[in-house]
Amino acid sequence: MKNNALLSHNTDPVAPDSKRPTLRPVRAFVFSCILLAALLLHFSASSRRWHDPSRASSGALDLWLAQQTDVAWRGLLRNIGPAAGAREGLLIASPSTSQPDYFYTWTRDAALSYRPILSRFAAGDLALEPLLRSYVSSQAALQRTPNPSGTFANGLGLAEPKFQVDGSAFLASWGRPQADGPALRAATLTELAMILLDRNATFGYDYVKRELYSGHLPPRSVIKADLEYVAHNWHKDSFDLWEERSGQHFFTLLSSHRALTLGSTLAAALSDSGASAFYSGAAAQISDALERFWDPAAGRINAYACPACFRRSGIDAAVLLGALHSGGADGGKWAPGGERIGWTLEGLLDGFRGLYEVNGRGKGEDGKGILVGRYPEDVYNGTGNSQGNPWFLTTLAVAQTLYTAALDHLPSSSSLAAPPSPSSAFLPFTAPFRNTANSNKLKSARELKQRGDAFLEAVMRFAGEDGQLSEQIHRTTGEKVGARDLTWSYAALLTAAEARSKLLAALNAE
């Protein structure tokens, strides 16, 4: 995720200052600690003895997931604000300050990791609103912080990838710009704005108009600023979500498409009709540009517009992450349950079968789940370069993709624009995508759920008794390596668990 030894430019050694900066007044720290304690108490489960994760069964998985969801939620909250050693509202990537140093706030990581919090808030947990508002305030402050990418006035500073935990600029060499950051932030905050507007409360409407989206140009509000950046810059090269290569990337463009599609709807709701049409038009252009990533000969979506330029195959878990977080906004074409993602998932699993010794004889066949990395050619080992490892968050992305696809293919679902072509010669893991009759759809959904569970069980085997999720799992020993307590890993566990819960409820209702 943070491997700048592979940058295509800006290759000067990165030497971030791992010394924690002096932080805000004591009152802010005390307030944050009280808020964190209240939230942890609010969600605490009764103490229980951790079961042996090696005893994998359906019941063991359910028990482990109930416990691990609680651990992940607590881990997520601990990595936010002064309780984590950061400014109010800022989310740190990890508490690790050396080997590797991830003690920074990344715009991308924060936007994705706040989504489980937003989901619980949308489900009715109003106690989370102060935390979400602190996120809004922190991002507005970051937008206005001059940095090596630019400033708020020229708009270019919005694509600065990371900041110090006190909100000041990170000045060392890095992979800049990273255009997925403002796109993901805009999408997350637009969802928050829509939730607040749906309440029909005057204070919610006023807050949205004042803090989140105002139609003024030059932009004054956090969502408007990000949308303007995305709409005017989506076609330019930027670094990928792994921060390694500058170019055109599927994940970044799909994130931009979703941000503009949601932004167009929000602008229309707030009577900013000109902006709504502009954002919608830019989204349509991105939709056309996304087609270049579909490789019909290989039968997959490539993660990069030019894989050969990076000496890679194009197989990359970033495609699944893009589909999960941003794929629902284009008529199902890039959705987790779509035919293209099904083919791409099969190609991804093919690329990792037999790659890691830690998977043993598991090849991802016959229902056996495996640990999955970022891309087969990866050399980042968590602290330097040698051989890449499997990651928790990418393995969880496979599980979540299968759960979401299963939900899309239930007889009661209408989320797909059209069923997959019956003439497609689907491979083992994606064969269930082919069924179109209602009876077959229900069977397929159950099969996909079982296959998703197989990958969740692979995570369970290596999470350990404490449930602490690092960035990576060593490819040979199975030891947890890389940044400890990675916030994105915890968020990925929570979103996968939520997808599974929704699927189980839907299956029970059929």
Would you give an account of this structure?
With 510 residues, the protein is mostly helical. 47% of the residues lie in helices and 3% in strands. The strands form four sheets. The chain has a two-stranded antiparallel sheet with strand order 1-2. A two-stranded antiparallel ribbon has the order 3-4. Strands 5-6 form a two-stranded antiparallel ribbon. Helix 6 packs parallel to helix 9 (250-269). The longest helix is centred in the last third of the chain and has 26 residues, at 438-463. It is globular and about 55 Å long. The two termini are 40 Å apart.
Major sheet attributes = 2 strands, antiparallel
Q: Outline the low-pLDDT stretches.
A: 5-26, 38-56, 414-428
Shape: globular
Tally of individual helices: 15
What's the pLDDT, averaged over the residues?
86
Number-wise, the strands total 8
Strand-residue proportion: under 5%
H and E string: HHEHHHEHHHEEHHEEHHHHEEH
Subunit arrangement of the protein = single chain
Alpha-beta classification: mainly alpha
**Radius of gyration from CA coordinates:** 22 Å
Measure the end-to-end span.
Answer: 40 Å
Helix content: 40-55%
Question: In order across it, which strands form the biggest sheet?
Answer: 1-2
Can you lay out the helices and strands and say which pair or pack?
Elements: H1 26-43, H2 58-78, E1 105-106, H3 107-113, H4 115-122, H5 129-143, E2 162-163, H6 180-198, H7 202-212, H8 222-233, E3 238-239, E4 246-247, H9 250-269, H10 273-290, E5 294-295, E6 300-301, H11 318-326, H12 339-352, H13 392-408, H14 438-463, E7 472-473, E8 480-481, H15 487-509
Antiparallel strand pairs: 1-2, 3-4, 5-6, 7-8
